[in-house]
Amino acid sequence: MTILSEILDFNSNFVTEKEYEQYATTKFPNKRIVILTCMDTRLIELLPKAMDLKNGDAKIIKSAGAVITHPFGGIMRSLLIAVYELQADEVYIIGHHDCGMSSIDTDTIIGHMIERGIDENVFDTIKHSGINIQDWLHGFKDVTESVKMSVQSVRNHPLMDRKVPVHGLVVHPDTGQLDIIVDGYDHCQ
User: Fold this and answer.
1) Most CB atoms within 10 A, among 36, 45, 103, 157?
2) pTM, whole model, 2 decimals?
3) Is a pLDDT exceeding 90 seen at residue 26?
4) CB of 33 within 8 A of CB of 70?
5) Is a pLDDT exceeding 90 seen at residue 135?
6) What's phi and psi for 61, nearest 5 deg?
7) Phi and psi dihedrals of 37, rounded to 5?
8) How many percent of the chain have pLDDT more than 90?
9) Per-residue model confidence as pLDDT tens digits over 144-175
10) pLDDT in tens, 85-100
């Protein structure tokens, strides 16, 4: 049995037994917040529980390292839509200790790509397109500094409402303890 078939079998029972009813909510976040956090598997249930969030309380956006790599990329677009269209009044950037992006080796990733069949010539094409693949794949050295940089990217974005607090936190992936790095209320206009 494949993972997909296991998921679909479970899903069939989930729908038949109406287990979805306990999760019923609207598309608007009850606590009126949007969170950008890491895609780390340890945070899937831990972070919402550590923040006392239930289904429907927050918009949650995930990316590797909770990093905003481009001011007009999909992450920033999602944050802006959450604020302007989905009633989020606050932004939370939440990194975590022991993040894989803090120790990432871009040469190793590229090596894995080649091992799995990506033609080495593709990297020359990407380079000639003006993209530095090393920079694009690069993570960060310090989670605190990375969170500060993401907070600044959001807070200083030309399309972000200056009255929206942009908070920066770091969560411990074992305990759920949240450490505040940037209190967004201190920077609102």
Assistant:
1) 36
2) 0.92
3) yes
4) no
5) no
6) -110, 135
7) -140, 180
8) 92
9) 999 999 999 999 999 999 999 999 999 999 99
10) 999 999 999 999 999 9
Segment (H or E) for 169: strand 166-171
Beta bridge partners of 35: 60, 92
| Nearest-angstrom CA–CA distance, 127 and 129 | 5
- DSSP structure string for 27-87: SS-TT-EEEEEE--TTHHHHHHHHTT--TTSEEEEEEGGG----TTSHHHHHHHHHHHTS-
**Tokens 């979805």 -> residue:** 20
What's 182's DSSP letter? E
- DSSP label of 95: E
Q: Is the pLDDT of residue 47 over 90?
A: yes
Question: Which amino acid, one-letter code, is at 147?
Answer: V
* Residue 38 to residue 27: CA distance in whole angstroms: 22
Residues 6+ away with beta carbon under 8 Å from 143: 95, 96, 97, 99, 102, 170
Quote the CA–CA distance of 152 and 157 in Å, as a whole number: 8
* HSE toward the beta carbon, residue 103, CA cutoff 13 A: 5
| 104 vs 119: CA distance, rounded Å | 22
